[in-house]
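Lines hold sequence, tokenised fold; shown next:
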Amino acid sequence: MFWVDNMKKYKMFFLLLLALPVILNAQVQKPDYILSKGFFTLNGKIYDKNGYEVIMRGVNHTHTWGDGTKNFNSIPHIAKTGANVVRVCFSNWDWQTISNTPEKRRAIVESYIANGIAPMVELHEATCGESPSNIEAIIDNWLDPGNQEWLNDYEEYVILNIANEWGPGSNGDYSVWRDTYKTAISQLRDAGVNNMLVIDASGCGQDPNGIILNGQELIDHDPQHNVVLSIHFYGNWLTRNNFTGSGSTGVYTSSPWGVEVELSKMRDAGLPVIVGEFGWSEYEACPYITELILEFCQVNKIGWLAWSWNSNSDPLLDMVWDWAYNSDEDLREYGNVIINHPMYGLKTTAQPLSIFTHDKTKPSVLITFPADSAFITFPSELTITVDADDIDGSVDFVEFYNGLEKIGEDNSAPYSLTLPVISRGDHRLGVIAVDNDGNRTLADFCFITVGNQNIDKTALLVTANAATVKPGDTRVVEYLKLAGYNTIFVDDDTADAPDAANMDLVLISSTIVPTKVKDKFNHITIPIIVWEARLFDDLKMTDVLALTDYGTADGKFITIINPTHPLAAGLNNDVMVMDYDYKLTWGKPAPAAITVAGITGQSGLYSLFAYEKGADMFGLTAPARRVGLFLYDESGSQLNQNGWLLFDAALEWAGDKTVAVPPNEIVPAPAQIELAQNFPNPFNPETVLKFTLPQPGVVRMQIYDLNGRMVRNWGAVHYGAGEHQLRWNGCNDNGLPVPSGVYYCTLETRGQRLVNKMLLVK
């Protein structure tokens, strides 16, 4: 009976032990030279005392200013977010009465530990200081017997961030920052402080160059090699949405810096680095996109601690309205992003540390197919399969993402999602398991590439500088290769019509200087895709008045106004083509143009339009198909699945020589294109849709209900000649069964639209 009773009592403990390797990855052995009883670093990664990798996810929280009682009482509320580490701000300022004694600090640290959070403690009064005396005073304080006592007592839980944002920076000489911290490391270790140490970057925590130049030297100086480097992001930083690469091309250049660029340098150098602070992008001193920092850190497994829970001078930087978090109604917009972002928020990404016991565990989840870095031949159906489990309950459902776009979910094991079409290009597949307690876990991302194996066409890309192609154009070229194109570059200042000879397609980037290209390609009989708005008038695709007949607009949405045209790629209504706001190119074409999409919310600004061969433009008959596209400069680096589907549709339509028609000639529909009646009909719940193509082409299959609402969309898929079939299981695009009734199956290809009526009876 004793054995049975204790088995019941400790069942959860045993289950947790079994689950930890799945949740937290495999254990590593702590080297003998690391004396810490707690956290340690090895090969650029951070581990807890049990040898499980730790990806820090949490916030900064003050115990220095504001309401000391509310700050203390908010610790259990922070624990509700799932944060596993909190950066705890202490101070010795004379007026400070919140954390100015060892006893007060011990009580605060004990509260974090009791709530399952590892405290990363720091002293705040050296902020932006440049004198070594600032650090000397802080080290004296950490080595005060009362402080060192609780540092030693809670060594397995406490991380020591020596000081906040100290050190001269941006001058190319980081020797003062480096040498002062070397002395500090020696003093702490000689005194028996064995906690993992964190050192902020110099220059108010924001200068990456000292870390890149001297970070490894600081780590090597520690006999335990147990030092982590911390970088902060505020006004000196930009994310990829607006970083041009002009700020930090070398280690001695001044800000602004690029978040992803500099973090990549640190990661590639093997440095253990965390993002110690970053604020809300709506705050004027935070000009980056917060979500991009979360995304990059998640993809690259870099820890982050967002600033700050509450009590800021500007409430934009507060995560909660008051210190408490009892429901999402207590959150400000910044806090909602940090805590509840569906892909990157604390509730999804923060994994509990193995050094704490928990009543409830998060589910485990793993993408089992496709394999990471797989190449998928286009076009082909792709089925994503997932293993998900929850040891203390059950998995309610699994969400599937492509980039930031949720593409479906499955609520029964074995978990899977089938994509009838996925655009060519690179894709980041994400999967989130949600258990019966609402706990969320994001699996490691799976990166795949979809494309053609054969290169059988040639494209000419007119760009600003063929020798140093910009990132946006580089992504376009990568995509062209996946679409079967070899790309030939030509500079805008030397480009001319003869360059297009023997090409299958000409593309003109918005990185060009329009006055260098002008009307040189007006009369070529090669299809053109162009996304430089100021060239639309030179190519006679629009009239000549800038900002009236052509221009750019800020945003990321376009509205499909002609969903049946092949250029719409099977999309409809408002479509987000980039994950983040950027610029969209637009023009106002001639009446004979095909208008497919416009800038959302701005009538008459067409972001996707085209001319058939022989159509009347502005003073010129189109010598071949021409497409005006919404891309702009670096947006090639930011297109999402929808954006690439539309780009792919432009390639297919512009480059499809078999359907180019001479002026004013109508080509009859080939009789061989057939859409057979579905079988069985009536059906319940499944039916087969068969169609026949006389030659290869892009087909769009969709199902509408009796009210004209689209319920199922297989998207734009390239099929070979011959007979093909799809199977419809009577569910909509969200995987939910549709009710009994009349439905219409539509097939669109090469300008034709065939329709069959079907009856679902339950």
